Amino acid sequence: MSDKPKFAMYWAASCGGCEIAVLNIHEKILDVDANFDVVFWPVAMDAKYKDVEAMDDGSILLTLFNGGIRNDENEKMAKLMRRKSKILVSFGSCACEGCIPGLANFSNVDEIIDTAFHTLTTDNGSEFKLQTHYSVPEGEIHIPTLLPRLKTLDQVVKVDYYMPGCPPESHQIAAVIDLVIQVLQGKATLPPPGATIGVGNSTVCDECKRARNEKKIKYFTRIQLTHPDPALCLLEQGIPCNGPATRSGCGALCPAAGAQCIGCYGPAEGVMDYGSRLISSFASVIDGNTPQEIEKVIDGIPDPAGQFYRFSLAGSLLRGSKTVKSN
Amino acid sequence: MSDELNLENAEERIGVYVCHCGTNIAGIVDVPEVREWAEKRLKNRGVVLARDYKFMCSSLGQELIEKDIKEHQLTRVVVAACSPHLHENTFRTACKRAELNPYLCELVSIREQVSWVHTDKQAATDKAKAVLSGGVERVRHHQPLEPLRVPIHPATLVVGGGITGIQAALEIADAGRRVYLVEREPSIGGHMSQFDKTFPTLDCSACILTPKMVSAGMHPNITLMTWSEVTNVSGYVGNFVVTIKQKARCVKTDLCTGCGICQEKCPKKVIDEVYEAGLGYRKAVYTPFPQAVPKFPVIDIPNCTYFQKGTCKACEKFCPTNAIDFNQKDEEITVEVGNIVLATGFDLFDPRRIPHYGYGRLANVFTNLEFERLTNAAGPTNGNIVLRDGKTTPKVVGIIHCVGSRDRNYNNYCSAICCMQSLKFAHIVKERTGATVYNFYIDMRTAAKAYDEFYQRVLEEGTLFVRGRVAEVTDAARLPGEEGKLIIQVEDTLVGKQRRIPVDMVVLSAGLQSRHDSKEVAKLFGISCSADAWFIEKHPKLDPVSTMTDGVFIAGCCTGPKDIPNSVSQGSAAAARVLTYIDRGEITLEPVRASINETQCSGCRICNNLCPFNAILFHADRMVSEVNAALCQGCGTCVAACPAGAISGTGFSNEQIMSQIEGLLLLNLNGARTQEKEMAFA
Amino acid sequence: MTDQFEPVIIGFTCNWCSYRAADLAGTARVKYAPNVRLIRMMCSGRLDPTFVMKAISGGADGVLITGCHPGECHYIEQNYKALRRFILLKRTLTQMGIEPGRIKLVWASAAEGVRLATEITKMVEEVRALGPLNWDHHNGHQPLAISHQPEEVAA
């Protein structure tokens, strides 16, 4: 039994991108191996839930938990990993604010199941009902039940640190791993609990190289409909770039590549509701004073809820739309 | 969960005071019940005591607060009583006396907004509890703020050298303070210098104006800058830096004696569109009128033969003191002032916009300003009232009120002075020519001292009054007697008939409107214009000479049409306000303003053009924006707009408002905090 | 206590115009529905959409935003920014399933006490007809009515 500090990584409702981002630290993974004992990481090693249950509470030093809490299995694992971990990091946009799976919060569970199981190519009949238990000779099979809405990790358990991003950039992951190793060696201290780590101090504009001027937006458009000037702020050219409201740390990769920031790094420090910041800032600089003028400009964003809450719906103040039923 | 809350609240000790206001509140709201509820239910929100009292604003009520602050070490105070607009200061001052920072006090209204407007006693009491709860939650996030103190530079800038500007400048200068009086024409005097007589006294306008002009010109404390314009203003109250462009007069003022030979000898005649309203001529080198202050002429470069063709130079040849200097250049002067008074006056409505009144097409239709020049003894006709041919005296004169005023098609407002002006014209015409005079009016507005008596006098003199808005002035004769005349077509509403009245001369009382460049000027000085482009005062009733921008005052017609006595009053009022600031030496500004966290600011510049007071600067070197606290008026727009949440506002911070929402919705009770992320405390 | 649903509406007013209009309604003793609880801000330009989200998620059935008439803003032109935000916010909230009648913008000058009172009463009835919003069911808040509060404070 190794006496190296224990490390775990778990994926709830996710795409696997966060796991890949961690592996993308390339040879730095050897530092992880050298400094930690990886005890539970479904994508990379074989271990069972009961193994985790058998561990002492608080015995895992660091757990990176990614993915949103979509079903009761996710919720159970969130609570389990919380109990067994000293430091629980809400890793990646799904765990931090819901991310893409969180967009399901625009619908209620019945609508979701209906849509999934009644498609052009399925023929389930009208009496179809989703079963969550099924008996086979070997025993009972249980399918996790969908929760009424997708929750963020901190809506279920207490979280120690947040690392946003879809996925968090590998260089940021490497930096955090370095920091933890330094802390273990007594050369550094951890940031205060509740902090967001692996990020910059400001928003994406801070890292973006494009020139910026005073804003007066006469229309909103899409990059494929115009030829944006690569040296000028995208927002000023009518492209709804979420960079001004999005936490810095990624290096403004998307604007550098000619695309608008879509906001995967989540809100700036201290911001309660990410989408509200965009609603407020975009609207404030619209060049229009009458309802007609304003509506005309806003028509350029046909899906405001998607534009402003693509990653952050589950973690927003409203958390979803009205059709999501309560427990 | 609630243990956490108790720890959280251990720092704050909030005193709650619920006022009965006699029966004003207590008659509908169950005040003792609200008090008891606050004491019990808000205890773990920091409320350590709750009192109710008949009249909290009384000295006994205030003493109650002061005593409790000292004896119970209160750190916050919430009063539930009347509107903060009435007594916020009262309770803040009470806190101050007890050595608690006045900004740690919150007054919530349960009178104007609850007891006076609701009839259901239960609902009103419930609402009062919610309102109080909101106040308690909010006050927990109040900061001990200190008002900003800003020093006041003792010099003043007065822009506009008409009667208002002159009055303001003289009063400030007489108090021993330096004034820079800037005027864009070559001489001060403004419109009043163009008039013949002033109503109702029929004083000669020049006679009452020129002594003031001379005083202003000679005053040791007034720096007169005519033929000049302000080009840039920066800074804030008490500390303005103003750039003034002094246009080249082409005359050396230290050598010029004002003898006037240059004007006499100049061969180039120019139609004087400004002073003579286009009725007379001046020369290319000119002073606008003989009593000009300063007496130094200017050369009208676009019309000067030397500048345009390189020949002549008669003025230089004949000037006995060699004061002509064709090489003079425009100069830029920068001054520092503490306050600015804008007295930029008005423009006349252009009656060409009303084609059916015939101005500009029919020769003998005159504007009021043209008519003033006609009647002026020093004017182009030496005071003779004659037609455009320069010879014929009219036998019948029609004076039309409300030209371009009180008219949705042009200017909706009343121009205040036209009725009196039209009556004055009627009187002068009668006096000098004995002609028949018709006044066409809608209402007779003669509201000030001796005005209505003047109207009665004009009535008695035999002027004929027709009540109706004139439909048309035409020269197309239709009926016998109309040939060669101007016919005024009008509905005489008192008689109920259409009338066609043939006259020889028509005088249009064109309305007053804002200067053509009002909007630019307003922007330059950081103030605002109304929809009609008049400068906007801080409060139309109670603060008519201040603006929303501290340190910039407005006076006279630039704020709206008014007569000379009112203009002079406003000039004096502005001077008094300026002198108050200068006398105090410093000004305190309410500490409700925004500030930008430089670390969090990404330099996106979204906030940069959201401030009408130009309080937000962008530092290109550091790629961050910054709020100038002295210019900031505390509206909070930038706070709400910042996408990074990097701008916070004292007095109405996010924490305060969000907490107030929680309190109003009673989310603070039952210890049931939400599962959302903790609010940042900026 | 009637069985009728009593909506709770949070109202945002600006210090110079609409708050004074509310005060004026008070001094004139104009009666209106008690369902609106007002918050005073310096300017409608201070209105952050986050406040509206907070009110709704906290259990309000409606939100009323008020300010000076366009062109009369005490801070010159900030109510235009409020208008722009309101329109974009309303579109977003409609996508979230919130009925348009629950979020309203009313311009009221300091002289329009009667009008503000009328608008408030009108809005209360409109929201009453829409029924409770109960957004707090999503995040576990307790219900709003004071008279229904359990006597004992939790813990």
Secondary-structure blueprint of this entry?
The complex is a heterotrimer of chains A (327), B (682) and C (155).
Chain A: E1 6-11, H1 17-23, H2 29-35, E2 37-40, H3 49-54, E3 60-66, E4 69-71, H4 72-84, E5 85-91, H5 92-97, H6 109-117, E6 133-136, E7 139-142, E8 146-151, E9 161-163, H7 170-184, H8 253-256, H9 274-284, H10 291-298, H11 304-309
Parallel strand pairs in A: 1-2, 1-3, 3-5, 5-9
Antiparallel strand pairs in A: 4-8, 6-7
Chain B: H1 2-9, E1 14-19, H2 31-41, E2 47-53, H3 59-72, E3 76-81, H4 84-97, E4 105-109, H5 111-115, H6 121-139, E5 148-151, E6 156-159, H7 163-174, E7 179-182, E8 197-198, E9 203-204, H8 205-218, E10 222-225, E11 228-236, E12 239-246, H9 261-265, E13 269-272, E14 280-283, E15 285-286, E16 298-299, H10 305-309, H11 314-318, E17 331-337, E18 339-342, E19 346-348, E20 365-367, H12 368-375, E21 396-403, H13 418-433, E22 436-441, H14 451-460, E23 464-467, E24 470-474, E25 486-492, E26 497-503, E27 505-510, E28 512-514, H15 518-525, E29 552-554, H16 564-584, E30 586-589, E31 594-596, E32 616-619, E33 624-627, H17 637-641, E34 647-649, H18 654-664
Parallel strand pairs in B: 1-2, 1-3, 3-4, 6-7, 6-18, 7-10, 18-29, 20-27, 21-22, 21-27, 22-23
Antiparallel strand pairs in B: 5-30, 8-9, 11-12, 12-17, 13-14, 15-16, 19-28, 24-25, 25-26, 31-34, 32-33
Helix pairs in contact in B: 2-6, 3-4, 6-18, 7-8, 7-16, 12-13, 13-14
Chain C: E1 9-14, H1 18-27, E2 36-41, H2 49-57, E3 62-67, H3 78-95, E4 103-107, H4 113-130
Parallel strand pairs in C: 1-2, 1-3, 3-4
